[in-house]
Amino acid sequence: MFSELKPLPTDPILGLMAAYKKDTNPNKIDLGVGVYKDEQGHTPVLKAVKKAEAFRLENETTKSYIGLAGNLDYCDKMEKLLLGNDHPALLANRTRTAQAPGGTGALRVAAEFIKRCNTDATVWVTTPTWANHISLFEAAGLTVKEYPYYDYENKGLLFDEMIEALKQVPKGDIVLLHACCHNPSGMDLNAEQWQIVAELAKDVGFTPLVDIAYQGFGSGLEEDAQGLRLLAATVDEMLICSSCSKNFGLYRERIGACSFIAKDAAVADVANSVLLSVVRSIYSMPPAHGADIVNTILGSEELTQEWHQELAEMRDRINGLRSLLKDSLNAKGTSQDFSFIERQNGMFSFLGIDKAQIDRLREEYSIYIVGSSRVNVAGVSKDNIAYFADAVATVLK
Ligand code: PMP
After folding, report:
1. Domain end among 251, 274, 299
2. pTM score of the predicted model
């Protein structure tokens, strides 16, 4: 059976990570992998997380299963983090949440859940989107189609084209939206644009699925959820897939959530029974550790405050680097204008350089960037930004 298999190409990011590891150049820079890094290039465990883990070690009393939906206190706190404490969809008891193994696990659960709701649903994703979105939904047997989103030429949004395309989406299909810090482009919708999309969802009859993997990495915890909240206040039904990988720095603990909002509490209960049966058939029950950490932090005023501060430090560093990168690159006087880096949000932006220039950066300067030219802004530091800007200016000549 196994000998019939054909090898698959390695994921380009994983290949790039391996090559970076092997590189002995002391000036090497990794802008490929999508994790937050501090000024020293580390992805630290947050202090609030360390404290919550110490508490857990002392106070955990059982390793018995935690149930299909996971830690219910965690689910409750995540709904409030996502929607705000007093959101109408929460007050009307229309929201249900299942803890999931990371944002990816949440998306896979959502995909199987969508399949149960409507076998023929097509999932519409932004062009471009996080590559795994497409494989995830296709793996669940759903059709994936794209709608215009990023304007490569003007480094902005193709908003009119996006709206025209969404007007044509058949009723009952799913439209995936990135809540904030769009991966890979960094280009987000503003509040006015979110409202237009929300009205459109209602008129056209598609169901929004909001992927929120970077809440707090753009402008703030509240600000980054404004589009999602607006949508939730407008439509009868929607899905939300969230991740605590980035904002709590819990990447390897695999903690996220799959939530949905139904038209009323009775429909929500029925749909929730289907959601939980989906979970049962994939991994039965989620792991406990990450949810317990998040629940402990959000359940303590002191730890929440510490977490907010640490999250703000990560966000401020990213936004500071965005300004610095823009200034350093623009100061080189190349024909490109890099001001877009400052206008975009989160860790990613497309540098907008070609394949040959990306190869030169890697071969001559040990600067590692994926083939699309997406860079992780958090991968540079104040110390090597000048080296990076010099290298980019040289390959652009
Ligand atoms: N959605 C998007 C847009 C992402 O960028 C990521 C992580 N790269 C995820 C979901 C999944 O995150 P997790 O690591 O929690 O599975």
Report:
1. 299
2. 0.97
Q: Both tokens of residue 158?
A: 């193709």
Classify residue 51: in a domain, yes or no. no
Residue 238: inside a domain = yes
Q: Which of 124, 130, 194, 307 is catalytic?
A: 130
- The answer to whether residue 103 scores a pLDDT higher than 90 is yes
pLDDT tens per residue, range 272-317:
999 999 999 999 999 999 999 999 999 999 999 999 999 999 999 9
* Active-site residue (options: 211, 292, 307, 326): 211
- Total number of residues shown for the chain: 397
Into how many domains does the chain fold?
A: 2
- The answer to whether position 306 is within a domain reads no
Is 124 among the catalytic positions?
no
Are 291 and 307 within 8 A, CB to CB? no
Residue type at 270?
A: V
Q: What's the token pair of residue 208?
A: 């929004």
For residue 359, how far is its CA from the centre of ligand 1 (angstroms)? Answer: 26
Which residue, judged by its Cα, is nearest atom 2 of ligand 1? 213
What ipTM was assigned to the predicted interfaces of this complex? Answer: 0.99
Confirm or reject: Cβ of 211 under 6 Å from ligand 1: yes
3-state DSSP call for residue 264?
A: coil
Q: Distance from the CA of 17 to the center of ligand 1, in angstroms?
A: 17
